[in-house]
Amino acid sequence: MQRFIFSILLGLAALGIAAALMIPPIAQPLWYHDFADKRSLLGVPNFFNVVSNFSFLFVGAWGIWYSASEKPTDRLRDSSERWMWSFFSAAVALTAVGSAYYHLDPNNDRLVWDRLPIAMTFMALLAIVIAAGLSRRAGTLLFLPLVLLGAATIFYWHLTENWGRGDLRPYLLIQFYPIVAIAVILWLCPAQYEGIGKLYSALAWYAGAKLYEFLDKDVFALGQIISGHTLKHIGAAVSCYLILRWIRSSARAPIQLVARSQ
């Protein structure tokens, strides 16, 4: 079964790469930086798009604290997976820093620091899901290469922008491929994952966040209270929180099952 799933994942990756190569390079459109809510408050430009990033900081800090805490019910305490959970949590927290920095003055140069932790978070999560229920060895071995690949797509995009022929295709691929791959893994072997509902909810929240991002101006037009992009930050942070809740429940579950059987 493992070989079958890995074959599907490799096939999906090959299809994604082939599809990306069939379309011309995609430069970063400058209109992307034109967000609906430009209100300043307390001297902070684009206030709500900036401060909504603190939701990532809170979630990431909670994840770091949990990964570092020592509890008798924590299966991760002596596990090789602990450092992967810690990295994921740190990347979520760094997303707050990078995105807040970008939204203070949206431009391509600052966008690099917004997207860099996001790309690493996506690839780290893919490796974590593989390690958690499909193959711990494969997930552990793939973790660093996948994270570095995610980071490389950001630097590649930034270099191509500076060369005057921006190419977002690799970044778009590593943003959406992990979501599809994780959904396939969960669908094909749901019994391997404790608390799988939290992961499905996380995927749903992220899909909603992307929808709000697309409807940024339309949402803000409804009374000019809050913009779609601000809601995107909050929805994506909730998705990360649910992932960390899954980490917590899956770490505790085996010990709880043992306790019930005694």
Helix-strand sequence: HHHHHHHHHH
CATH class: Mainly Alpha
Pairing-aware structural class of the strands and helices? mainly alpha
Low-confidence stretches: 252-262
Seen as an oligomer or otherwise, the chain set is: single chain
Number of helices: 10
Query: In the CATH classification, which architecture applies?
Result: Up-down Bundle
pLDDT average, as an integer? Answer: 88
Strand content of the residues, in percent? under 5%
Largest sheet geometry: none
Short description:
The chain has 262 residues and is mostly helical. 75% of the residues lie in helices and 0% in strands.
Question: What topology emerges from the helices and strands here?
Answer:
Layout: H1 2-22, H2 47-51, H3 54-68, H4 82-104, H5 108-134, H6 136-162, H7 169-188, H8 196-214, H9 216-221, H10 228-261
Characterization of the model:
The chain is built from ten helices and no strands. The radius of gyration is 19 Å and the shape is globular. It has helices spanning 2-22, 47-51, 54-68, 82-104, 108-134, 136-162, 169-188, 196-214, 216-221, 228-261. Helix 3 packs parallel to helix 10 (228-261). By secondary structure, it is an all-alpha fold. It has one domain (46-261): Rhopdopsin 7-helix transmembrane proteins (Up-down Bundle), CATH 1.20.1070.10. The chain is 75% helix and 0% strand.
